[in-house]
Each structure stands twice: as C-alpha cells, then as structure tokens.
Target: Oxidoreductase
Amino acid sequence: MTTIENGPGTRELAGKRALVTGGSRGIGAAVVRQLLDAGAEVVAAARSATGTVPEGAAFVEADVRTRAGAQTLAAAAQEMLGGVDILVHNAGGARPHEGSSAISDEEWQDALDLNYLASVRLDALLVPGMRERRSGMIVHVSSAVVLTPVAPFLHYTAAKAALENYSRGLALELAPFGIRVNTVSPGRTATPGGEATREQWAEVAARMDATPSRNAVVPLGRDGRPDDIAHAVRFLVSGRASWLTGRNLILDGGEFPMG
Ligand SMILES: NC(=O)c1ccc[n+]([C@@H]2O[C@H](COP(=O)([O-])OP(=O)(O)OC[C@H]3O[C@@H](n4cnc5c(N)ncnc54)[C@H](OP(=O)(O)O)[C@@H]3O)[C@@H](O)[C@H]2O)c1
Model:
C-alpha cells in the first residue's frame, strides 16, 4: 500500500505556529487560509482589522513599515503563539509615479520600509527563536515585475530586488540551523491591492509621454488567483520542501519565461 505523507488535504502543518503579514485580504488572506487548512495555528497582521480576515486566525494590528510595528508584531506572536515556526512576509505594494524623477524621497523610503526593511526588521526579531529551536520556515513575497522594472514603479521593484537578494543571503546564513528561507514572486494576481494599483498605473501611463504600461500576455491565459500563490507558500513551508532553500519561485502563468 502506498502512503502519501504531507500531501495536499493532510494536516501537514499541525503543531506549527505561523505569522502572516498582510493577512487580512488578497494573497495574504489566501495564505492564512491555506496554513489553517494544513493545521497550523495562524496570526494574521495588517494595519486594520477587516471582515476579510480569515475565520480561525488570530489578528494583530500593526504597521510593518516601522520598527515599533515589527516589535508589536513579534511581541504579540510570542504572547499568542509562544513562538513562530512559519513566517510569511506578504505585506507590500506601492503607488506608481510619472517616471523615476517623480518619486519623492518619502516615497522611496516608504517603498523600502514596506517591501524590504519590514522583513529585515521582523526577521531580526523572530529568527533568534528559530535558531534556538534549530528549525523554521520563512517566505518573502516579492514580485515578478522585478524582472522588467518599469519607470513608475522603480521604488517598488528596487525594494523587492533588494528583498530577493537579502532572502538568498539569509537562506545561506540560516541553513546550518535548519531554517529554510525562500521567496515567491507573483505575476499579476487578482487582489484588491493588485487591481487598484493597475488602475492607477493606467492613469499614470496615460499622462506620460512614453507608454510604460505593459500589456501582459499570460501564456496560461488568465491572471493569477490568490490561491495560486498561497498553494506555493503552503508547499514551501511544508516538509515536502525540506531540501529547498534560497530559491525564488516565480508564479506568473508563464509571463516571464526568462525568470
Ligand atoms: N496582486 C498582484 O498582482 C501582485 C503582484 C506581484 C506581487 N504582489 C505582492 O504580493 C503581496 C500581497 O499583495 P496583494 O495584491 O495581496 O495586496 P493587497 O490586496 O493590497 O493586500 C495587502 C495586505 O497587506 C496589508 N498591509 C499593507 N500595508 C501594510 C502595512 N504597512 N503594515 C501591515 N500590513 C499592511 C493590507 O492590510 P491594511 O491595508 O489594513 O494594512 C492587506 O492585508 C505584496 O507584497 C505585493 O507586493 C502582488
């Protein structure tokens, strides 16, 4: 008889404690649902609680862009879960601008804080516990757009590129401690944030001389669904991915074959 361990539909993450930033909607909420379905205990974090926080998850209000927000989250996770085995850095995004010179210092800093430094700060607070336990799984959420950086989003793509590089380095540093670190890079995915950003992008593109907007051709014929990304995260934090670290999984329906 064949026994399938850790297969989909099993409670492969039973006993694991997970923290998901940006877990109130979109990709983050789908990740929260997948981890709950796999048996993990989950804390979702965002700046405000909404009706879309998945049932069964605990919720913490925090702004990940600040050191204080990271400290709030780490303390809450310790108090509610007693530690974190699975950390998914999903909160992210940025507003488009009319070219690189139109991106202010404040916007650059904000993009770096949200899309890069938030992960660095929270990892620094939660990795010591993982090192002590000699186990842990970290997933950083980047973007497939890093592969074709466009003018309105240079602050965003540069911050995500930094995140990818940091994620690879962290994976090498933590591998001897049994901690795996990977990145997922979604292509265009149907979420509230994704749709709003693409609308803003079209408006900005219409005001620019050059047309920076991409007409995405997705070989698989549709935009991504939050679960397309969440299934990959569920796999990466499971025992099925126990020999996988330092990788960036590009989930884009085939849009960026060079990735
Ligand atoms: N959707 C796409 O097409 C796409 C493509 C490539 C990459 N991505 C990446 O995938 C991730 C999720 O994107 P999404 O489209 O699901 O976004 P979304 O629909 O805008 O959801 C973002 C989530 O993050 C939270 N959040 C935003 N800013 C935060 C902050 N400063 N502190 C704490 N929480 C914060 C939001 O809640 P609050 O607003 O209440 O804080 C919400 O829960 C992001 O990293 C994004 O860059 C998305």
